[in-house]
Amino acid sequence: MNVLLCGALLIVWVPLSESACYMFPDHKEKQPIGSAKASDCIDPHDKSEHLTGTTWINSMCQTCSCVQCKTLCCDRVLLPRGYSEDCVATFNRKKCRYTVHQKENLSAQCKTQYYVGK
Ligand SMILES: *[C@@H]1O[C@H](CO)[C@@H](O)[C@H](O)[C@H]1NC(C)=O
Protein backbone atom coordinates (compact mmCIF):
# COMPACT_ATOMS: atom_id res chain seq x y z
CA MET A 1 0.00 0.00 0.00
CA ASN A 2 2.66 2.40 1.05
CA VAL A 3 4.86 1.42 -1.85
CA LEU A 4 2.06 2.06 -4.33
CA LEU A 5 1.41 5.46 -2.86
CA CYS A 6 5.06 6.34 -3.19
CA GLY A 7 5.52 5.36 -6.80
CA ALA A 8 2.27 6.59 -8.25
CA LEU A 9 2.44 10.36 -8.12
CA LEU A 10 5.36 12.66 -8.62
CA ILE A 11 4.01 16.10 -8.01
CA VAL A 12 6.51 18.86 -7.57
CA TRP A 13 4.56 21.34 -5.58
CA VAL A 14 7.30 23.77 -4.59
CA PRO A 15 9.24 25.88 -7.09
CA LEU A 16 12.70 24.37 -6.90
CA SER A 17 14.26 27.44 -8.43
CA GLU A 18 14.16 28.90 -4.95
CA SER A 19 17.76 28.32 -4.05
CA ALA A 20 17.10 27.74 -0.38
CA CYS A 21 15.29 24.45 -1.01
CA TYR A 22 16.69 21.06 -1.86
CA MET A 23 14.92 17.94 -3.01
CA PHE A 24 16.32 14.60 -1.92
CA PRO A 25 15.56 11.45 -3.84
CA ASP A 26 13.13 8.75 -2.95
CA HIS A 27 14.98 6.50 -0.54
CA LYS A 28 12.45 3.75 -1.11
CA GLU A 29 13.90 3.07 -4.55
CA LYS A 30 16.84 1.48 -2.85
CA GLN A 31 14.67 -0.74 -0.69
CA PRO A 32 13.27 -4.05 -1.84
CA ILE A 33 9.60 -3.97 -2.83
CA GLY A 34 7.45 -5.02 0.06
CA SER A 35 10.06 -4.00 2.58
CA ALA A 36 8.53 -3.78 6.01
CA LYS A 37 9.89 -0.32 6.62
CA ALA A 38 7.15 2.09 7.60
CA SER A 39 8.87 5.38 6.89
CA ASP A 40 8.63 7.16 3.55
CA CYS A 41 11.45 9.67 3.93
CA ILE A 42 14.74 9.86 5.75
CA ASP A 43 16.17 13.14 6.86
CA PRO A 44 19.37 13.71 4.85
CA HIS A 45 21.25 14.99 7.89
CA ASP A 46 19.71 13.43 10.97
CA LYS A 47 18.76 10.11 9.33
CA SER A 48 15.46 10.30 11.17
CA GLU A 49 12.46 8.67 9.51
CA HIS A 50 9.28 10.45 8.45
CA LEU A 51 5.98 9.67 6.78
CA THR A 52 4.53 11.32 3.69
CA GLY A 53 2.70 14.51 4.61
CA THR A 54 4.79 15.36 7.65
CA THR A 55 7.03 18.38 8.24
CA TRP A 56 9.91 18.64 10.68
CA ILE A 57 12.91 20.80 11.54
CA ASN A 58 16.26 19.05 11.49
CA SER A 59 19.53 19.68 13.29
CA MET A 60 20.79 21.78 10.36
CA CYS A 61 17.98 24.27 10.97
CA GLN A 62 16.20 23.19 7.82
CA THR A 63 12.46 22.79 7.52
CA CYS A 64 11.89 19.49 5.77
CA SER A 65 8.75 17.91 4.35
CA CYS A 66 8.10 14.42 3.16
CA VAL A 67 6.20 14.69 -0.12
CA GLN A 68 5.33 11.55 -2.07
CA CYS A 69 8.29 9.83 -0.41
CA LYS A 70 10.72 12.53 -1.43
CA THR A 71 12.34 14.75 1.15
CA LEU A 72 12.24 18.48 0.51
CA CYS A 73 14.34 20.64 2.81
CA CYS A 74 14.47 24.42 2.91
CA ASP A 75 16.94 26.55 4.79
CA ARG A 76 15.20 28.71 7.30
CA VAL A 77 18.24 30.58 8.56
CA LEU A 78 18.21 34.33 8.07
CA LEU A 79 21.49 36.16 7.68
CA PRO A 80 21.89 39.50 9.42
CA ARG A 81 22.82 42.48 7.24
CA GLY A 82 23.50 46.13 7.77
CA TYR A 83 25.23 45.90 11.12
CA SER A 84 28.26 47.91 12.14
CA GLU A 85 31.79 46.81 11.21
CA ASP A 86 32.65 46.66 14.90
CA CYS A 87 30.22 43.82 15.25
CA VAL A 88 30.32 40.14 14.52
CA ALA A 89 27.50 37.69 13.81
CA THR A 90 27.55 34.32 15.54
CA PHE A 91 25.23 31.46 14.84
CA ASN A 92 23.10 30.13 17.67
CA ARG A 93 22.47 26.51 16.78
CA LYS A 94 19.74 26.01 19.33
CA LYS A 95 17.70 28.97 18.17
CA CYS A 96 18.59 28.51 14.48
CA ARG A 97 19.41 32.16 14.13
CA TYR A 98 22.29 34.60 14.18
CA THR A 99 22.94 37.05 16.92
CA VAL A 100 25.12 40.11 16.38
CA HIS A 101 27.50 41.35 19.06
CA GLN A 102 30.25 43.88 19.32
CA LYS A 103 33.66 42.36 18.59
CA GLU A 104 35.17 44.05 21.62
CA ASN A 105 32.38 43.12 24.01
CA LEU A 106 30.43 40.01 23.22
CA SER A 107 27.76 40.75 25.78
CA ALA A 108 26.77 43.94 23.95
CA GLN A 109 24.27 43.29 21.17
CA CYS A 110 24.43 45.25 17.93
CA LYS A 111 21.54 46.63 15.96
CA THR A 112 20.80 44.72 12.77
CA GLN A 113 18.98 46.60 10.05
CA TYR A 114 17.56 43.62 8.21
CA TYR A 115 17.85 39.90 7.62
CA VAL A 116 18.10 38.07 4.33
CA GLY A 117 17.30 34.50 3.49
CA LYS A 118 20.23 32.33 2.51
C1 LIG B 1 29.72 45.23 27.54
O1 LIG B 1 28.40 45.52 27.16
C2 LIG B 1 27.48 45.47 28.23
C3 LIG B 1 26.07 45.64 27.66
O2 LIG B 1 26.01 46.75 26.82
C4 LIG B 1 27.85 46.56 29.23
O3 LIG B 1 26.97 46.52 30.33
C5 LIG B 1 29.28 46.31 29.74
O4 LIG B 1 29.66 47.36 30.57
C6 LIG B 1 30.23 46.21 28.55
N1 LIG B 1 31.53 45.81 29.03
C7 LIG B 1 32.66 46.42 28.65
C8 LIG B 1 33.93 45.82 29.16
O5 LIG B 1 32.66 47.37 27.88
TrEMBL record:
Gene that specifies this protein: LOC103191563
Transferase listed as a keyword: no
Secreted keyword on record: yes
Major localization class: secreted
Record's keyword terms, sorted: Disulfide bond, Secreted, Signal
Protein location: Secreted
GO cellular component assignments: extracellular region
Protein name: Beta-microseminoprotein A1-like
Transmembrane stretches, start-end: none
Leader sequence residues: 1-19
Classification via PANTHER family: BETA-MICROSEMINOPROTEIN
Species in which this protein is naturally found: Callorhinchus milii
Top-level taxon of the source organism: Eukaryota
